[in-house]
Amino acid sequence: MKYVRVEPLQDLFGYMHDPQPYLEILPQLAAQMPLGAAEYASAPGHYDFGSTKCVKDLTFGWTSLQDASGALSLKIYFEPNEWKHESGLLIEYADVQKFQIETNHADHSLKKMGSMQLDEVLPSSYGLTHEFAFTGGTLMVTAKDLDATWTDKIPR
């Protein structure tokens, strides 16, 4: 991530989280983002660790990638942490150009991604890039725009 900092602590028992550099430049970035991405990144509570609408501690649930009408659409559902969130988060991406998952497991298997630490949405020449940092890896999406909904219903 370019602005949001997520770094393992030296004792290997947790992470240091610092979204402040991103939050400081977010008004300028949001003006360059597609509308859905700007609303998502700027939503109240997004980086407030005590908020039920904070992405920290969500877990990767499932994904669905479809080729419809000549463009790829992607849905990703993040499951809630039972101690923090009232519902899960469904993000739907329009006209996907890139979808990449990397794990940091030694055998490079797609084991549990772990809990989300933080994310970062940036404007791009295509529309947006959206990067997620998990305890077990990273996820990156490049798309035209996104629509995010906090929901307890799990559509597929």
Describe this structure in words.
There is one protein chain. By secondary structure, the protein is mainly beta. The chain has one domain (15-150). The protein has two helices and eight strands; from the N terminus they run E-E-H-H-E-E-E-E-E-E. A six-stranded antiparallel beta sheet has the order 3-4-5-8-7-6. The longest helix has 11 residues, at 20-30. The two termini are 29 Å apart. The mean pLDDT is 88.
- Helical stretch tally: 2
Instruction: State the end-to-end CA separation.
Output: 29 Å
Sequence of secondary-structure elements = EEHHEEEEEE
Number of separate strands: 8
Strands in their spatial order, largest beta sheet: 3-4-5-8-7-6
The Rg value, from CA coordinates, equals 15 Å
- What is the beta-strand fraction? over 45%
Q: Major sheet: size, sense and barrel closure? A: 6 strands, antiparallel
Mean pLDDT reading: 88
Helix content: 10-25%
* Anisotropy-based shape: globular
Alpha-beta classification: mainly beta
Q: Unreliable runs, pLDDT <50, ≥5 residues? A: none
Count of the separate structural domains: 1
